[in-house]
Amino acid sequence: MKCPVCSKNIDIEGADSKTGETAFGAKEIDPSKGTRQFHDGEWYFLCSLGCRTKFTMSPQRYLAGKA
Ligand SMILES: [Zn+2]
Asked: pTM of the full predicted structure?
């Protein structure tokens, strides 16, 4: 899996691993290992919060090359 913003390889297990829970029972992840964003029915993995912000602002821009 590659980051759609910067094409860096992402360790999905790291990005998706649980580091704890919030007081409301939501999953906490370590953003330094990557993060993810739900878009158009799919989860997209991003290498960092910075890339996630860019992706969230204009997802079509980064998904243009996708079928
Ligand atoms: Zn990235």
From this structure: 0.69
